[in-house]
Automatic annotation (TrEMBL):
Pfam families assigned: OmpA
Domain OmpA-like positions: 195-312
Name used for this protein in its record: OOP family OmpA-OmpF porin
InterPro entries: Bact_OuterMem_StrucFunc, OMP_bac, OmpA-like, OmpA-like_sf
Any Gene Ontology CC annotation: cell outer membrane
Principal localisation: membrane
Alphabetically ordered keywords of this record: Cell outer membrane, Membrane, Signal
Signal sequence extent: 1-19
Keyword Membrane carried by entry: yes
Length: 312
């Protein structure tokens, strides 16, 4: 069983509701909640490398909270995957996620903002970090989630800030822009591939890692696909989103679905393709085209494909 994290403390002291209200196991006990402070939060956006962790400096009302989970804790990865799904459901874009090894272990942990014991404990060999941003009409909201454990319990720290009007990158993000190695030049041969093989990777689309927002384009693959569909209104395709294996299945499936939806919306709004000719689905990391053990392979796996649905 899970429940929404209590906001009783905020109500009692008249504080605004936080940007992100996590849903936690029933055994979660809030052990720290501070009043919001107007300052800058250094939101980690990559692993410890070259002597520091790259950050986005987000100004606004910063609040830190923490919980201890004495029962119902299924492990750091499972809980972090749940938080990632919740963030995506609340329209956050996940900028970065990592486990202890990928983050940078000791160095990452001691280069980011972490509450002191007893409010937060971090097992240097078993933690997961998530960074997320969301655009709202009032400005940007940012969330940093740290999940770890002690020998007896799970530990969660949530730092959220917002709304902020600007974000300043302290150092360039180390996570590359997602791209597939397939060349962006799209020709009639690609239409033939779609018809002959039944599917085609839309190879020039660009998404930031962890983001469902499609770049501004223009994208030749979408122009080709739109021309193909607009030529015959009986033609139908499913747009299928895929991810690499970084993170949990639920979060990746939702992210891949949102990417496919973004492509569908672009085809409808910018290329006048009928919604009746399009479907959008996400399968997460379940259909890789390359090994997830290398960055090149993970890059290839982050893609959107067009699957022809016509049977004749």
């Amino acid at each position: 069983m899970i429940r929404a994290a209590t906001i009783t403390f905020a109500v009692m002291v008249g504080l605004p509701v936080a940007a992100f209200e996590p849903v936690l196991p029933d055994g979660a006990q809030q052990i720290y909640a501070e009043a919001p402070e107007q300052r800058i939060y250094a939101l980690p956006t990559g692993p410890y490398e070259g002597g520091a962790v790259p950050v986005d400096r987000v100004p606004g009302d910063v609040r830190r909270r923490s919980w201890r989970i004495t029962s119902g804790f299924g492990g750091t990865n499972a809980l972090a995957s749940s938080f990632a799904s919740q963030l995506l459901e609340q329209d956050f874009d996940i900028l970065y996620s990592c486990d202890a090894a990928a983050c940078g272990g000791f160095d990452f942990r001691f280069d980011i903002e972490v509450l002191l014991p007893p409010h937060m404990f971090v097992d240097l060999a078993d933690y997961v970090f998530l960074a997320a941003l969301k655009e709202t009409s009032a400005g940007l909201e940012a969330v940093g989630v740290l999940v770890s454990r002690t020998a007896e319990a799970g530990m969660v720290q949530v730092t959220d800030v917002g709304p902020a009007k600007r974000v300043t990158q302290k150092r360039p993000k180390l996570r590359p822009v997602s791209a597939t190695p397939i060349a962006p030049n799209v020709s009639a041969a690609d239409v033939s591939t779609l018809q002959a093989e039944g599917h085609l990777t839309l190879g020039d689309l660009v998404f930031e890692t962890g983001s469902s927002k499609l770049g501004t384009g223009p994208f030749a693959s979408l122009e080709m696909l739109a021309a193909f569909l607009n030529e015959d209104d009986t033609r139908r395709v499913a747009l299928v989103g895929h991810t690499d294996s970084v993170g949990g299945l639920d979060a990746n499936t939702e992210l891949s679905r949102k990417r496919a939806v973004s492509v569908k919306q672009r085809l409808e709004e910018a290329h006048n393709v009928s919604a009746d000719q399009l479907e959008a689905r996400g399968v997460g990391y379940l259909s890789p085209v390359a090994s997830n053990l290398t960055e090149a392979g993970r890059s290839a796996n982050r893609r959107v494909e067009a699957v022809l649905l016509n049977t004749e």
